[in-house]
Amino acid sequence: MVPLRICTMPAVLCVAIYVAACARITIPSNGLASTPPMGWSSWNAFGTRIDDATVRATADAIAANGMREAGYIYVNIDDGWQGTRDSQGNLRGNPRFPDMGALAAYIHSKGLKLGIYSSPGKVTCSGYIGSYGYEKQDAATFAAWGIDYLKYDWCSASDEYADRQIPKAYQKMADALRATGRPIAFSVCEYGVANVTGWAPELGANLWRTSNDIKDSWQSVLGNVEMQAVYGSFAGPGHWNDPDMLEVGNGSMSDDEYRTHMSLWALSAAPLIAGNDLRTMSAATASTLLNAEVIAIDQDSLGKQATMSREGMLETWTKPLADGSVAVGFVNLDSAAARVTIDDRNLGLNRVPLSTRDLWAHDEIQFVNHLCSVSLPQHGVLLLKASTH
Ligand code: GLA
Q1: Among 82, 213, 215, residue to substitute to test ligand 1 (most atoms within 8 Å of Cβ)
Q2: Which one of 52, 79, 138, 153 is the catalytic residue?
Q3: How far is the CA of 248 from the centre of ligand 1 (A)?
Q4: Half-sphere exposure of 285 toward its Cβ, with a 13 Å CA cutoff?
Q5: pTM, two decimal places
Q6: How far is the CA of 126 from the centre of ligand 1 (A)?
Q7: 61, 259, 307, 363 - which has most CB atoms within 10 Å?
Q8: Residue closest by Cα to atom 8 of ligand 1
Q9: Closest CA to 176 of 155, 158, 152, 194
């Protein structure tokens, strides 16, 4: 990733500049992503070693392993698909992607949607051709192929634009996508800089990254989701904060940590874009990605992001839900097991819940005199849903 120049003026002036830029942006919602987008992306597991056959096999897996029915609809090709422009300037896939239209038709035949990746700069973060100067033409090409989702990644665009022009750079593509008439989800990726929540929602973006690239490590997962906590008020149906794609199943964390990762994304109303190799995942990984009760927290129609509090090595995340119940996640930050005592009078409801369900054990939690003591493994989670009806 190419780092952005930081606005060097006093903070108040930086914000004023971005707010002024926002005032010119008025793109109504495209009606997509009423709940956080779900799907898969090639990047975390494959990087640029991605090809047509792997994307098709991934779609086959999603259609066969229950993920499609669970809501994982988008199959997103990240960086590394681009070839060269033809003599008319039309962008083509590289030899690993010989026929994008045929690939889109295949993905659609599986009941899924195809996502693609480009940049407002001349080149992408991995050095492939970007859309700078070809925004309208590329959007039209994507629409003609049958693309349903575009991740638009800043990368080298600092070479073409000053920081205050970041919203305009994204607006060019937002306008171009609208002009195609095809509903294409728009994923803004500029790592959460330049007051992104101040303008991306106005621009009709469906999601925007709030942090730097995720890695398959506990520190990275926790850091990204904590960084996004302060932006809760900007999330809602149609437009979501994005702490980056999932690392569940990529091998460098424990199954407990992956369950916590999934829980924190669900509590944060984050896009659930799996980032592992779905053709070969373990039963534990599949059960983490396919936990319907956890997915339901993420996909709750109220679209509220959890608020977080911390006491010692325990974090508590509380997310209000559409039916008046709450989801609460208790996360053990410690590198040793820890005991947590929960009080059912203190779960974020204004009365004692009638039902408190452990969403990983798939069982009711039993309280004695309103208290329940649970042992959490290192970096483990207790994720519950408490209802008063
Ligand atoms: C950036 C993005 C990543 C990925 C790579 C591709 O680093 O943040 O998510 O798309 O580029 O090169």
Answers
A1: 213
A2: 153
A3: 18
A4: 18
A5: 0.94
A6: 8
A7: 259
A8: 213
A9: 152
The answer to whether residues 376 and 340 touch, using CB atoms and an 8 Å cutoff, is: yes
Tally of CA atoms within 13 A in the half-sphere of 325 that contains its CB: 19
Instruction: Name, in order, each residue with C-beta under 8 angstroms of 310's C-beta and a sequence gap of 6 or more.
Output: 316, 333
213 labelled catalytic: yes
Residue tagged active-site, from 60, 213, 256, 334: 213
Q: What is the model's pLDDT at position 13? A: 55
- 380: how many CB neighbours lie within 10 A of its CB? 23
Question: What is the best residue among 44, 118, 126 to mutate for testing ligand 1's pocket, by most ligand atoms within 8 Å of CB?
Answer: 126
pLDDT above 90 for 11: no
Identify the residue whose C-alpha is closest to ligand 1 atom 5: 125
Pocket-forming residues, ligand 1, beta carbon under 6 Å = 1, 43, 78-79, 124-126, 153, 189, 213
Q: What is the predicted pLDDT for the residue at 14? A: 54
Residue 20, pLDDT > 80, answer: no
